[in-house]
Design a protein that fits this description.
Length: 454
Amino acid sequence: MFPEICDQVIFSSTLFLIVFAPLAYGGVDGWAQNLIRIMVLVMFGAWLLKSAYHRNFKFFHPPFALAACLFTFHILFQLVPLPAAWKEFLAPVPRDHSILLPSTPDFSPPAQPSHWTNLSLYPEASQDGLFSVLTYFGLCWVMLNNFRERTRLRFLVVMLVVIGSFEAAYGLLEYWSGRQHIFWITKVIYLDDVTGTYVNHNHFAGLMELILPLAVGLLVTRQTFYAADSANSSMNRIKVTGGSAFLKSALLIVAIMLMLVALILSNSRGGLLSSLLSFLLLAYFMRSKRGKRQTTFQIGLWVVLLFGMLSVSLGREITSRFSYSIRDAPERLGVWKDSLTMVRDFPLWGTGLGTFRYIFPNYRSKIDFLVVNGVPRQATWNFAHNDYLQLLVECGILGLCLALWALVATLRFLSKLNRNLNGPGATLGYSCVAGVLALVFHSFVDFNLHIPAN
């Protein structure tokens, strides 16, 4: 009885996070992040209690476990107070830059002896970043070691498609109505873009590009196994099963169409290109399996037809958005150039996880402005709009190498797994990987990896 209660706590908490995090503006507010951390802590505690009850602490190690642990130790080393002489030897502060930090009640440097200091230039920000890393790793660990039943896994997949469809439908409704609200809050930016319940259209596109391949994979599995059932069933069974299967497939097609239209009308250039690339990868993954050529053709046909029809009907919006690249590119490149200056000054250990927004104003070579309701306002860069460059700034070469190690280890693991997988689990697995890779590609020009919901 007790293990079943723990399982139910973990399962219910996972469903809550799938629904709550996107609806809470992507989970970016402090209160939302704290609630997400509490829920993950509850899930991890329930898993530990269940393991202790069974006296079984055997668990599955994710392929990136060692790299993730070393990355955690790297952040902890940034936070450990060190003698000032050690700090000067390991990460000397550049003489040609005076690092000024904001003095607010929430972020005030701790009172400590002058001969002790940290590698992180802003320890409070790095502590918050460490909590986020531990939250994501803890969630991943619990799910990998607790979700083994096919029915529950499939239910989670369906819930992801449902929340993606809701976000798309809600965003399109607000967009076409001209109301442009997020619940009761009036939007002041991105008024010409679909954003769902997200503030930023790029992060909404990140959610769509994660879930779209999963919805397509779910549709392919339904089509494939419905066809197999029909071939081996009597006429009466075909009539009974066929109606239900047709309805579910129709709902999936509607969900895919909604998310595709919402993705295109989000006007996210990185989201569109990353999604196209992820679908090409999904087709390649499926083609690598024997007997999957017909499925590959189905995926390719769906993608070409849907993107073709929608691109023709929405061509003006797409063309105008990509034309902005000429205007936006110099500004983004300028931010990356200034960020590389930070890397030059703090190459090995970085400035500290989570410190970019506080240190970057000391390096920005120009004053930036953001137009809100037609009024220019001075803007600040909280993120580098390149998650890998920002990781290099905050965690140095060591941190970036650990992240690349984790990525390579995971891809090698998936490559080996690919040789032994077949059936619906393989199809949905490929779909998940395609969605994750879409976000990986998109993060070269944005900061989706800093959005808790994604």
